[in-house]
């Protein structure tokens, strides 16, 4: 079994986790493997970008702790947009602490992330206990977790044995860990026998069509590099979509462009 040559909709049937299933289904329904990362500091701008790109995405990635005028109304509006435009929500919280602390960070505080984010992510650095802590909150709510097995930045430390250990952690909790933030497929890592049908979602940041970096360590690859060549599943695009100002038509055009490029790259991969 090779997830690279299987369709998103067929793969949705292999996942028992509700968030993974729902994501693969919406990707198929909307013909989109585009996740837009909305890293802006004002609520109004945040909601306006999401309303504009909503029709073209399968997933919206948030960093709610960036928003200066955050309030509960923002979450209500985000939820309404996710229903109107049919996308899932991924809070890019990058949990990285002991089980008990991440459990509190996930469920409580100002943001109450578990109440509204279908998907969150975590650094594997604390070991399997971080997954247990998050699962105790997220599983009863049908949520999914991604582990950061690799990063997009220059000279990052998530390589080699660290990546392998991240994959092993995921294999211990397939009910909750639905995949990875990574730059390539992970099923073959750790001299694992892939014949039993393992399937991870690979969500990949560091995607841009016009520039190669941001002067702060970020490194960009194209949708073709990421989806067709590396076999990843979802392209995560931030500033490539809204980085040239807040003109709504320009943002819509970029979202359509990345959606089209990402989908073409997926169809090219399937026809290989
Ligand atoms: O390795 C990573 C992991 C993540 S989640 N590299 C990343 O860039 N990210 C996130 O993806 C980062 O926090 C940001 O929100 C987004 C990339 O944004 P862009 O504007 O560079 O496309």
UniProtKB/TrEMBL annotation:
Biological process terms in GO annotation: 'de novo' pyrimidine nucleobase biosynthetic process; 'de novo' UMP biosynthetic process
Domain Orotidine 5'-phosphate decarboxylase: residue ranges:
33-254
Active site per database record: 92 (for ompdecase activity), 94 (for ompdecase activity), 97 (for ompdecase activity)
Q: Which SUPFAM superfamilies match?
A: Ribulose-phoshate binding barrel
What broad class of enzyme is this?
lyase
Has UniProt tagged this entry with the keyword Cell inner membrane? no
Fetch the Pfam families from UniProt: OMPdecase
Gene3D superfamilies in UniProt: Aldolase class I
InterPro entries the UniProt entry points to: Aldolase_TIM, OMPdecase, OMPdecase_AS, OMPdeCOase_dom, RibuloseP-bd_barrel
Source organism superkingdom? Eukaryota
SMART domains membership: OMPdecase (SM00934)
The entry lists its GO molecular-function terms as: orotate phosphoribosyltransferase activity; orotidine-5'-phosphate decarboxylase activity
- Which reaction is this enzyme known to catalyze? orotidine 5'-phosphate + H(+) = UMP + CO2
Q: Which residues form a coiled coil?
A: none
Q: Which UniProt keywords apply?
A: Decarboxylase, Lyase, Pyrimidine biosynthesis
Q: What is its EC number?
A: 4.1.1.23
**Residues annotated as binding substrate:** 39, 61, 152, 218, 238-239
The pathway it acts in is:
Pyrimidine metabolism; UMP biosynthesis via de novo pathway; UMP from orotate: step 2/2
Q: What family is this?
A: Belongs to the OMP decarboxylase family.
* Listed name of the protein: Orotidine 5'-phosphate decarboxylase
Organism for this UniProt entry: Sistotremastrum niveocremeum HHB9708
